[in-house]
Design a protein that fits this description.
The structure holds two protein chains of two kinds. By secondary structure, chain A is mainly beta. Helices cover about 0% and strands about 45% of the residues of chain A. Chain B starts with a strand and ends with a strand. Chain B contains no helices and eleven strands. The chains are: A mainly beta, B mainly beta. The interface between A and B is medium-sized, with 26 and 26 residues.
Chain lengths: ~110, ~120
């Protein structure tokens, strides 16, 4: 069982918006930056969001992130079929002194 | 351009020791705040954090696998090596290495990932 909790799946129609919430605790999300990773089918994960809400170069502004309390949220607007992927949240856990991931959310664009 | 590439055996027998190498370019492990981590992903399952080594040789391990893992670095060769002892079929997974960026004593993000290498554990 993962330290961070993600919904197993989310879905929405092309052009719509979706949000994915990552729930943790005070030892991880509550006190450390959250990053998000996108894993397209058959590929390695890619950094999507870092420091809660920053996008690396090349990541479109359709992707956004936020953190409040012990939860973080990834938002994706203007959904495209090419966005179908598994998404993971990650952060440092100060109690475990290790990195932790959420269990992954599969996005389906209907 | 930053790249990382994992290498090692594709098949290991139960009870054997796995040794994986992460060869990287485009950055140095002597640069402050930079590290390399290992992550694995069983087929069809989620990512699992394994270990991290930082620029200052600080090492962190997954609590659940701590007694089986050893991570080392060769800064001159731009390589990080992970060994995992007593391999079991449940350890079958794709193993990734990734560059990490630190913030104080914590890791802030994993910004570049390798392509991964599939390791199967079977007799």
């Amino acid at each position: 069982q993962s330290v961070l909790t993600l919904p197993p799946s989310v879905s929405a129609a092309p052009g719509q918006k979706v949000t994915i919430s990552c729930s943790g605790s005070s030892s991880n999300i509550g006190n450390n930056y959250v990053s998000w990773y996108q894993q397209l089918p058959g590929t390695s994960p890619k950094l999507l969001i870092y420091e809660d809400n920053k996008r690396p170069p090349g990541i479109p502004d359709r992707f956004s992130g936020s953190r409040s309390g012990t939860s973080a949220t990834l938002g994706i607007t203007g959904l495209q079929t090419g966005d179908e992927a598994d998404f993971y949240c990650g952060t440092w856990d100060s109690s475990l002194s290790t990195w932790v991931f959420g269990g992954g959310t599969r996005l389906t664009v209907l | 351009q930053i790249t990382l590439k994992e290498s090692g055996p594709t098949l290991v027998k139960p009870t054997q020791t796995l040794t994986l190498t992460c060869a990287f370019s485009g950055f140095s492990l002597s640069t402050p705040r930079v590290g390399v981590g290992w992550i694995r992903q069983p087929p069809g399952k989620a990512l699992e954090w394994l270990a991290l080594i930082s620029w200052n040789d600080d090492k962190r391990y997954s609590p659940s696998l701590n007694n089986r893992l050893t991570i080392t670095k060769d800064t001159s060769k731009n390589q990080v090596i992970l060994t995992m002892t007593n391999m079991d079929p449940v350890d079958t997974a794709t193993y990734y290495c990734a560059r990490t960026i630190a913030l104080g004593s914590t890791t802030r993000e994993l910004d570049y990932w390798g392509q991964g290498t599939l390791v199967t554990v079977s007799s």
